[in-house]
């Protein structure tokens, strides 16, 4: 069954990111068939209820940073912890190396 809403297309694209890899908001927008709609990806993920099905934590900014999701920083800490459990490390500046960890569609991790 094809995804009908933009949010469904975004969630399906995010669910394709393998463990130990990340994708950028813009990359997910392209995979979802919505190029140049990276902000819509951010809004969809921000409004997501964490049911464990959509690995929202694997989506980062184009610079490899974790975007702010909560006023108290709890969502950012949770994202860092989830990424670390998958072997994705952040450098001293708080960035994920996209050269090392970015999902390349069709390439095994």
Please describe what this structure looks like:
With 109 residues, the protein is mostly helical. The chain has one domain: Arc Repressor Mutant, subunit A (Orthogonal Bundle). Helix content is 39%, strand content 4%. The protein is built from five helices and two strands, in the order H-E-H-H-E-H-H. The protein has a two-stranded parallel ribbon. The chain is globular. The protein starts with 5 loop residues before the first helix and ends in an 8-residue tail after the last helix. The model has no long low-confidence stretch (mean pLDDT 90).
| General form | globular
Gap between N and C termini: 27 Å
State the share of residues found in helices, binned by percent.
Answer: 25-40%
CATH arch. level architecture: Orthogonal Bundle
Structural class, by secondary structure, is mainly alpha
The CATH topology assignment is Arc Repressor Mutant, subunit A
* Structural domain tally: 1
- What is the count of helical runs? 5
CATH class: Mainly Alpha
Under CATH, the homologous superfamily reads Winged helix-like DNA-binding domain superfamily/Winged helix DNA-binding domain
- What would the average pLDDT be, to the nearest integer? 90
What order do the helices and strands follow?
Answer: HEHHEHH
Please state how the strands of the largest beta sheet are arranged side by side. 1-2
Using the CA coordinates, give the radius of gyration.
Answer: 13 Å
Low-confidence spans: pLDDT under 50, at least 5 residues? none
Number of beta strands: 2
Major pleated sheet: 2 strands, parallel
% residues in beta strands: under 5%
């Amino acid at each position: 069954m094809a995804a009908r809403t933009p949010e469904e297309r975004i969630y399906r694209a995010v669910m394709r990111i393998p463990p130990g890899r990340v994708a950028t908001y813009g990359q997910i927008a392209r995979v979802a068939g919505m190029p140049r709609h990276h902000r819509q990806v951010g809004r969809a993920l921000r409004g997501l209820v964490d049911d464990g099905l959509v690995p929202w934590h694997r989506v980062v900014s184009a610079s490899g940073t974790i975007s702010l999701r909560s006023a108290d920083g709890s969502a950012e800490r949770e994202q860092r912890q989830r990424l670390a459990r998958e072997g994705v490390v952040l450098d001293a500046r708080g960035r994920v190396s996209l050269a090392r960890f970015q999902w390349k569609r069709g390439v095994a991790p």
